[in-house]
Automatic annotation (TrEMBL):
PANTHER family: RNA POLYMERASE ECF-TYPE SIGMA FACTO, RNA POLYMERASE SIGMA-70 FACTOR ECF SUBFAMILY. One of its GO terms (biological process) is DNA-templated transcription initiation. The keyword Repressor does not apply. Gene3D superfamilies: 1.10.1740.10, Winged helix-like DNA-binding domain superfamily/Winged helix DNA-binding domain (1.10.10.10). One of its GO terms (molecular function) is sigma factor activity. Residues 120-170 form the RNA polymerase sigma factor 70 region 4 type domain. Pfam families: Sigma70_r2, Sigma70_r4_2. Transmembrane segments: none annotated. The keyword Transcription applies. Belongs to the sigma-70 factor family. ECF subfamily. Residues 21-89 form the RNA polymerase sigma-70 region domain. This is RNA polymerase sigma factor.
Length: 182
């Protein structure tokens, strides 16, 4: 079934379409949840909650061309995860400043490309929740610091600072991985 047809069937409450939607997108959406939570059990719970929200919200979906269904689903899933993080005060759990690098040397893009994607994903999952959340919103969701600040209830400078520290932490992990695996 094509994406538009699948979306229409889901809008009509077709259970077979729901099943196909889940089978087609669950893996990708689980990765979105994992990127934000860093915990597989929590990510799986949020994936389940997110699909329930998606199924209940299909009346709000508008087809805008190929890829719009996936984009809408990812946006809904990110909102479910952010709601969880806010509700559980995860974003306010901070890392001591002495453990948070302030500056970093950006690894060469060829170094980063040499690292398997699942290893990079693991590095992102190991970041403190605040860093990980800001990094995900900035890099993967392409949000500005102003948008991130509004979403998370922080100021723009905090968003920029957390992103810089996330990048610094990742740069250290990349360099260490390169030394071990070169």
């Amino acid at each position: 079934m094509e994406e538009q047809e699948l979306a229409e069937h889901c809008k009509q409450g077709d259970r077979a379409a729901y099943k196909e939607l889940y089978e087609r997108y669950a893996g990708r959406l689980l990765n979105v949840c994992l990127r934000y939570t860093g915990n597989r059990d929590v990510a799986e719970d949020l994936l389940h909650d997110g699909f329930l929200k998606l199924f209940d919200s299909f009346d709000k979906f508008t087809w805008r061309g190929e890829g719009s269904l996936r984009a809408w689903m990812e946006r809904v899933m990110v909102n479910v995860v952010l709601q969880y993080l806010r509700r559980n005060n995860v974003l306010n759990q901070s890392t001591p400043f002495d453990k948070a690098p302030e500056v970093y040397e950006t690894p060469d893009s060829s170094d980063i490309e040499a690292i398997p994607p699942e290893v990079l994903m693991e590095f992102i999952q190991q970041l403190p929740a605040g860093y990980r959340t800001v990094l995900n919103l900035y890099v993967f969701e392409e949000k500005s610091h102003k948008e991130i600040a509004t979403l998370l209830g922080i100021n723009e400078k905090s968003s920029a600072s957390q992103l810089a520290r996330a990048k610094a932490s990742l740069a250290i992990k990349v360099r260490e991985w390169m030394k071990k695996n070169s």
